[in-house]
Design goal:
binds zinc ion; single chain; mainly beta; three-stranded antiparallel sheet; 28% strand
Amino acid sequence: MNDSLPPCPECSSEYTYEMGALLVCPECAHEWSASADTDTGADTGADAVVKDAVGNVLADGDTVTVVKDLKIKGSSTVIKVGTKVRGIRLVNGVGDHDIDCKVDGVGPMQLKSSVVKKI
Ligand SMILES: [Zn+2]
């Protein structure tokens, strides 16, 4: 039996349970994807708040600007410093990428919160 579900990322409740592909917290009604696996050892809790390059707390739907040129892997495209990105979505992305967004003229991608600044 493997009953060790991760605690709730919102309120740290241990009484989480599985509902299909989601984990559900009975205490704050938070639902999230269980696919992130159980490597919650190192920085649990730090994930709850995503901050930009200067420490502003980011939220879904925020508009940000890119604070440095970003080369896109596998292409010659560069997202220039100052590029405005509207309607970001906070995600638990690949590596340190914690913002899901669509960049005008480039397309959908994931960014690191450390390279953007909230407007
Ligand atoms: Zn909770």
